[in-house]
Amino acid sequence: MKRDAANKYWDEELETLPREELEKRQLKDLKEIVQFAYDHAPYYKRTYDAAGLKPSDIHTLSDIQKFPFIDKKTQRDTQGVGSFLGELCAVPEEDVIFISTSSGSTGVPTMSPFTKQDFDEFQDTESRWFWQVGMRPNDRYVHALNFSLYVGGPDVIGAQNLGALCIWGGTLPSERLLFVLKTYQPTVIWTSPSYAWQLGEKALKSGINPKKDLNIKKIIVAGELGGSIEATRKAIEDLWGAEVYDFYGLSDIFGACAAMCEAKNGLHIAENHILVETVDVDTGKVLKPGEVGELVFTTLRKHARPLIRFRTGDVGWIDNTPCSCGRTHGRIHINGRKDDMFIVSAVNVFPSDIEAVIRELPGITGEYLIRVFEKDFTCKYSVEIEKNADNTALDEEVAAMVSGALKARIGVKPYSVTVHPDGELNTRSEHKAKRIIDERKGHGTSL
Ligand SMILES: [Zn+2]
């Protein structure tokens, strides 16, 4: 279908459906997918039978709350069982055309299969997000995400289907990527927020001014929280002279399940594909929109491997209030990974809260490293930062400023603040930056 480039919506009818209509559609798809999962995926049949649950028990959207959760562990325990695709899979292997896998950064990689229809609908959703941030057929787009096994790789097809000229950048070394940006003058790029920052800095160091010598107008970021932290987003926008939009994806579902619009106030989620709930992290109790909890997703249309009440491990909140862009699909706001949260003096602290403070303060580079540890049987955190090369303040003064700002914003002071010279913190990486070291017993060493 040829679209009018002046229309702000990719699929106007779908994106602006009155919520009542949207929820009607969700209910119809929910009933069908739960029945399909029960009929074809051995795990669901066994679990629901044991709990005395039937797909026909679903009469309203909230009836889903009667059904049990699944999580990463369920995926690991069931993959490879019975068949190559495992017990959550609901179609025969010949119907599967694509699999992606998670990075395995928190354990054994989990696999996500797609049927042809799943894959086409995935790409249509990605086209919708690209269109939403203003990509049009006259744009030149560089997809600078990993293509190996990663679910974000194929998102480039969504941009091609939209009609943009696509450059499959992948994870090129920075020098070659900068060559591409300078020579082909693309207008849109997608990468991680930390890499967007680094690439801009590298450009400047090699004599390329991103604002003048390059033509990037929009930067899509995902994979880390930075794009939803206003100070980080603004810093990248200022460096590039471009608009930055945050996307949120899950290896288990789509490369991007949710995306910012021009309002940049939360990320619209594809509610025609995903039923979102938030639940209390500890008790699993369902929360109301606006309350912060773990995001739980039910895929409404993925047939290869339906996920019913999948605990994402991400903490955030749902906002169903109308958005100024006119889209009716709800928005999610992400606070961080459940596993990254730590509790100091009864206060829940997310690394993103610390980043928001560090990125706003003057005279420091914005790079940081957080250590979480136990001292005298209580949890503490310390922060290491870098002072700008031209900052003449004493290290103690800088440390006191950072400590005071953290106390004011988060409510709990860091145990210590260590100040390093510009460029001395080893946190700049080409992929996900390592910024947290958890030294507590029973916790991972780094995330
Ligand atoms: Zn919006």
Short descriptors:
GMP Synthetase, Chain A, domain 3, 447 residues, Rossmann fold, alpha/beta
Structure description:
With 447 residues, the protein is α/β, with parallel strands linked by helices. The chain has helices spanning 12-15, 19-40, 42-50, 72-78, 116-132, 155-162, 174-184, 193-205, 230-240, 351-360, 395-410, and strands spanning 96-101, 111-115, 140-143, 165-167, 188-191, 218-221, 243-248, 258-259, 267-269, 274-279, 293-299, 310-319, 331-337, 342-344, 347-349, 364-375, 378-387, 417-421, 436-438. The protein has two domains: 1-335, Rossmann fold (3-Layer(aba) Sandwich); 341-438, ANL, C-terminal domain (GMP Synthetase, Chain A, domain 3, 2-Layer Sandwich), CATH 3.30.300.30. It is built from eleven helices and 19 strands. The strands form four sheets. Strands 4-3-5-6-7-8-9-13-12-11-10 form an eleven-stranded mixed β-sheet. Helix 9 links the parallel strand 6 (218-221) and strand 7 (243-248). The longest helix is centred in the first third of the chain and has 22 residues, at 19-40. The two termini are 43 Å apart. The mean pLDDT is 93. The site of zinc ion has 6 residues, from loops.
